[in-house]
Specification:
Length: 438
């Protein structure tokens, strides 16, 4: 499937010129792919007339191709092998901010299309139950909570807040042979960290884990001193998790989507070269000097008087970590894109820093400029959704989109590991340098 050079055409074209397909086009070495203005499924006469209606000249037509699938520069599919937006189980996900659940208040939320009830027991320890009574599917969050058990408001069944085990069924008579202790509402491990209540999403039903299953530690935001400031931001993203995550790691959209004097402009585009390396369940942009065309990094150097370095990690299922260090000063952030439904995600951003805590410059950037930055991404995703209704295929181009391809490969490798029970084969090779312009 290569570049198709098609015939010259037009109402007054006396001698049509037909040129055979070529597999690749090279200009001074690197592989070149051309993006069509319109996708032409085949070079028949009707499509030629369609192209003529577009007003394309012969020189333009020579730079068109038609395809049956999306392309990478290696000629491999850009779309994941599994279903688009497939959700990953067996990971911790942020369910709610910690301050959204206080006392005996029961909060409702959703993760991975599973309705959840989140609360705290009498000791303040968080718990997560599937928000469905196993009796008549009534939402348990409408019921009462005494600090130990959740009571369904429909028939009064009571369930242990942490295990989901049924503790009491009021309608049972003394001689009933029903063993109510064998009835469970779905439950999920729950923990609190970095200002979030996290749920470990085991499976859609909230079935109990095997006795020998070791739940991994809750994700933790790295910090590098005892005293620091912390801030949180959040936004809904109207897309599936795949589109949300590859947008999160996309290095090339900044000068177009986030144009601002304090960030970047079209005139600030320049060559970039970054080294990447594999890490467990993800990949790392190795420590390097921050981009010289970003105002916040210039401000950081001005404030601290120290040369700065930054390191960025992506870790399955949905976490992007960034650490900026300048001498004794540091800023650490984590962004997650969590699937709520197949067509809706939630972005959660948390940052901690010790850079001049008495002067609000970092707080201003995060709390005031940060929401604007996120709104710009949200607007792009909303508009992209208009096109995705008609064309779900994606094109991933050269090194600028290599991180997106790695994400799809990591996800496929994880799903294959779950299917076979074998250790995950890491798809990212050893240290590699990627080059792009942004």
């Amino acid at each position: 499937m290569g570049v198709m050079e098609v015939q010259k055409f037009g109402a007054h074209a006396p001698n049509p010129i037909v040129i055979l397909p070529v597999e690749r086009a090279r200009v001074d070495g690197p592989l070149v792919q051309f993006v069509p203005v319109r996708r032409y499924p085949s070079p028949d006469s009707s499509q030629l007339r369609l192209a003529a209606a577009d007003g394309l000249r012969f020189a333009d037509m020579r730079r068109m191709y038609y395809d049956k699938r999306p392309l990478m520069n290696e000629g491999t599919p850009a779309k994941p092998t599994g279903a688009s937006g497939e959700m990953l189980w067996g990971f911790w996900y942020p369910a709610l901010r910690s301050d959204h659940v206080r006392g005996r208040h029961l909060a409702r939320t959703m993760l991975l299309e599973v309705p959840l009830l989140i609360g705290r027991d009498a000791a303040g320890k968080p718990f997560a139950l599937r928000d469905i009574c196993p009796h008549r599917a009534y939402p348990l969050s409408f019921g009462e909570f005494d600090g130990e058990s959740v009571e369904c408001a429909y028939h009064g069944w009571k369930f242990d807040a942490h295990t989901g085990q049924c503790r009491h069924i009021p309608s049972l008579t003394a001689d009933s042979k029903l063993k109510s202790e064998r009835i469970y509402a779905g439950s999920f491990p729950c923990a609190e960290h970095d200002g979030y209540l996290w749920a470990f999403m085991t499976n859609p039903e909230g079935r109990a884990l095997a006795a020998n299953y070791a739940v991994p530690p809750v994700p933790e935001l790295p910090t590098f001193s005892q005293h620091y400031k912390i801030a949180h931001l959040a936004a809904d993203l109207p897309c599936n998790v795949d589109h949300g995550i590859i947008g999160l790691m996309d290095p090339a959209h900044g000068p177009f989507v986030h144009q601002a004097w304090w960030w970047r402009t079209r005139r600030s585009i320049r060559d970039k070269a970054k080294q990447f390396e594999p890490i467990p369940n993800g990949f790392r942009m190795s420590p390097h000097a921050p981009s010289a065309n970003s105002a916040p990094y210039k401000i950081l150097k001005l404030i601290t008087g120290e040369p700065a370095t930054t390191m960025i990690d992506f870790v399955l299922p949905n976490q992007r970590f960034e650490q900026i260090r300048a001498g004794k000063y540091w800023l650490s952030s984590r962004t997650t894109v969590t699937p709520i439904r197949h067509d809706l995600c939630r972005l959660d951003f948390v940052a901690a820093w010790n850079i001049l805590p008495w002067f609000p410059i970092v707080s201003f950037i995060i709390r005031v400029l940060g929401p604007r930055f996120i709104r710009q991404d949200t607007t792009v995703i909303e508009k992209q959704g208009l096109g995705l209704k008609y064309e779900e295929r994606m094109m991933l181009v050269d090194d600028a989109d290599r991180q997106a391809r790695w994400y799809f490969d990591l996800k496929a490798a994880h799903l294959e590991s779950q299917r076979t029970g074998q250790p995950m084969h890491h798809p990212v090779a050893g240290p590699v340098t990627l080059r792009w312009r942004s």
